[in-house]
Amino acid sequence: MSNDKPWDGRFTEPTDAFVEAFTASVLFDRRLYRQDIAGSIAHAKMLAHVGVLAEAECDAIVKGLLEIKAEIDAGTFTWSVALEDVHMNIESRLIAHIGEAGKKLHTGRSRNDQVATDLRLYLRDGVDTVIAAILRLQEALLLVAEREADSIMPGFTHLQVAQPVTFGHHMLAWFEMLQRDRGRFADGRRRINVMPLGAAALAGTSYPIDRAFTARALGFDAVAENSLDAVSDRDFAVEFTAAAALLMVHLSRFSEELILWSSSQFDFVELPDAFCTGSSIMPQKKNPDVPELVRGKSGRVSGDLVALLTMIKGQPLAYNKDNQEDKEPLFDALDTVLGSLRAYGDLVPNFRVKRDNMLRAAQHGFSTATDLADYLVRKGVAFRDAHEVVGRAVRYGIDSGKDLAGMTLEELQGFSAVIGADVFDILTVTGSVAARNHFGATAPAQVRQAIARARERLESAARK
Ligand code: ARG
After folding, report:
1. Domains plus CATH for the chain?
2. What confidence tens digit (pLDDT) does each residue in 321-334 have?
3. Which of 77, 247, 302, 406 is the most exposed place for a label (fewest CB within 10 A)?
4. pLDDT digits 0-9 by tens, 274-323
5. How many angstroms does the Cα of residue 411 sit away from the middle of ligand 1?
6. Is 232 a catalytic residue?
7. pTM (whole model) above 0.85
8. Where are the strands (E) in 274-385, listed by range?
9. Pocket around ligand 1: residues whose beta carbon is below 6 Å from it?
10. Pick from 179, 246, 221, 137: nearest CA to 461
């Protein structure tokens, strides 16, 4: 028969041409070639170590695989859809290249444990790259936070002006989201770095394999306990993608703020020209494309997560071909996260903060109303009564077009007799932020301490 597949012994008809293309994964799983070759080399060395392969056979296999890797690196390797996936492409090439010894590589393993191993190796590197990119963005945020520790902006709840905050404090809120994201990736990595190899198709193998040997060679922390689970588990991919989806949601929230802040209505920041585009029709436009795209891309990573969960949901043990569908969502999630983190790592240190505009915005909207209530409480008024008094003062301010700090002492005393001239110290936005001077709050002094702690937390992450 001319079908020429590594598995075609029991077949009498060739594969339908459409089915061949439909079932092939090589166009996307060839990304795994480095991991596939590393896994095969470790497997061959293990087989030689336990005496299943002769040393000379193992040497020929290793040499052949390294040559194939060089061909793929150089772009001279010919990928064949008829050979279905990255694993069979490489194995077929090995056999063509080195002959008999090549046919022995697949002893004691299956593509089922092979692909699960490849993917874990790939994702282990992927996670490390993501973590490095998050760290880079966190460092950029600390730079901005430091620069803007004293800059005052309106803080919002319900997107209504609430209380003044410092811009540095706001940057540190983003930092914290990323800190948790980084923790999630690092935690998931522990479950990624477990080796399926040796599970073979599903039940293990009858050869006297040494799984600890292979795990050591590949840098795995542990060997999968159960062969059925090892070939079918894709939890690690779900966990990664869940962490990626949440990270993208965070980046999407940053994006939304940058988009708002760079609008002419807010005018708090100016994004670098290099990160924006113009309009082909409206000459005045400078569009925040990068944040908009990141916000938009967050949707696809949530989609990748749903795709993976749904792909796994109906599967009985052990391996099923459904699992081939794990790769594209996973790769897409990884690529999207890396691209978005890179864009943000470049953008964050380079946007311009318009301090005067932010300050002016913070001075309007009665952002120090809570401070006035707290002042009254300090003078002996109960908080609920103080709230009522200030509410009336704000009402008066809205009607007369005056901000609290713009009213005269006499006007203010009309609302409460306990108000003295010292009230003006607390009605300023600077006084307001300086008063919030405890762990985790917005006072510039606290922001500086939080930055110092954040630096230590980053350093301890780098030491690990
Ligand atoms: N291309 C397959 C995948 O991505 C490799 C494993 C195939 N195993 C099998 N028994 N057909 O999952």
Report:
1. 8-107 (1.10.275.10), 112-359 (1.20.200.10), 361-463 (1.10.40.30)
2. 999 999 999 999 99
3. 406
4. 888 888 888 888 899 999 999 999 999 999 999 999 999 999 999 999 99
5. 79
6. no
7. yes
8. 352-353
9. 25, 29, 85, 111-112, 115, 321, 323-324
10. 179
